Amino acid sequence: MSEVVGLTLVSHAMTDAMAAGRFPIDEELNALGRRQLDGLDVGVADAVLCGPEIRAIQTAEALGLTPAVEPRLADLGCGVWRGLGLDRVQPVELTQWLTEPESCPHNGESIVELIARVRGWLADVARTPGRTVAFTHPAVIRAAILTALDAPPKSFWRIDIAPASSTSLHHRGTGWTLRSAVAGQ
């Protein structure tokens, strides 16, 4: 029998860009984000990882953890749209991006590319017995869920990941299983 691998993906807490509906930049958590983490318990882990962005690192550190940075947990690259509000993006390009997962009108990373990146990381985690907690971004968690469910990339935007929420997966030899998703506060 294969050993169980546990994975808890924690979405970083609120930032000003999230609150304002802007494409993310590498920014700190805001006051609401820091409050969202009060009482959050991710349990004991054999490995604690995070994306390279400040908001992912600060989320882990606010819980008293010292994560190792894993570049494959980085947020979806939004290219020239970084920091822009939705109202500053051409509607045709925004519609294309939201409906065609292989498109990349912002010259960053497509949804399909993100899913491939996360799929590769999940394959590596599956070979690491024990429990891993990873602090990352809603887009990365969506990609992990799609991989676990073998769902099509077009389903990416149909998954809502709240700030400071956790999603649990487990792996036992044959693939990933979505165990549970817990909304943030």
UniProtKB/TrEMBL annotation:
It comes from the Bacteria. It holds the Pfam family His_Phos_1. CDD domains: HP_PGM_like (cd07067). Gene3D superfamilies: Phosphoglycerate mutase-like (3.40.50.1240). This is Histidine phosphatase family protein.
